[in-house]
Design goal:
Length: 336
Amino acid sequence: MSRWNIMPHKLHFIFTFLLLFVSLCFSDDDHEMEEFLKREFSLSKPYQGVGSLGSSHWELMGDAMVTTDQVRLTPDMQSRQGAVWSRIPCHLKDWEMQVHFKVHGQGKKNLNGDGLAIWYTKERMQKGPVFGNMDNFTGLGVFVDTYPNEEKYIERIFPFVIAMVGNGTISYDHERDGRPTELGGCNAMVRNQKHDTFLFIRYIRRRLTVMIDIDGQHEWRDCLDIPGVRLPLGYYFGASAITGDLSDNHDIISLKLYQLTVLRSKKEEEEEEQDIITIPSVDNMELLRLGQNEEGMNGLAIFFTVLFSMLGCIFLIVIGMVVYSHWNESRRKRFY
């Protein structure tokens, strides 16, 4: 056997080896799943019967109104608040909500407010100061905050998206833009965009993921990803918004909820049946807050984590190639 006959086999082995290691290095814990649109928890054009008693799954509150193009939670006027709430409690274990929304108005930068929120909460149809909903809520809130109240944090660019889990006793801190209780977030330049803007909220295996698509590129961008988020079944979906001295139009074009069918082992199913969640909570919340206090270091830490992971993968690949080369050389000597 000539050297040239051996080379294609060697290249094939190396290529397979590379694929294996790359897949191991960059794999995540996503599991095979299917998604199904749940129309009873979704809101989209033509908004047939929305707000009418008995003829819709959705109910309007406050200054919210339906037009042919959107559900307008607030008009671009001062001191308004409005909301739209599902009438049916949701009992899905795993789900994702895709929100098509629009924030626009006459106000220029930092002369607009205050923002909108997407909810999955025990309470519904309650007016209040937290983006048009009650304070001390029980459940999940994802906020698109368009006005900075805490001006000393100049490194945070608004509008800003954050998520918060409340247990009925935790208050949202307006003066600090919700920082003491946030799970994480990202800046999102969503005001007065000519293209569509979207928010993506996924809850699967007690993991909360929020992403945004706001650049007109039809690509999701990571915003936050938090494990250990415990949300009970049977809560209500909703959307709300509020204006104060400053204002904006806050519009919901669609809310689309998908049921996710996730494969679980028998052991996982048994563990979930035994661990029934009655009060919303987040595992290791104190560690999350500690990490937020070091907010300026987060980007650097992520960079070095990714860098060292890639270097580790490359090192393993090189070691594998050297080992294979020695093995192949000794094998060749045995034949010749």
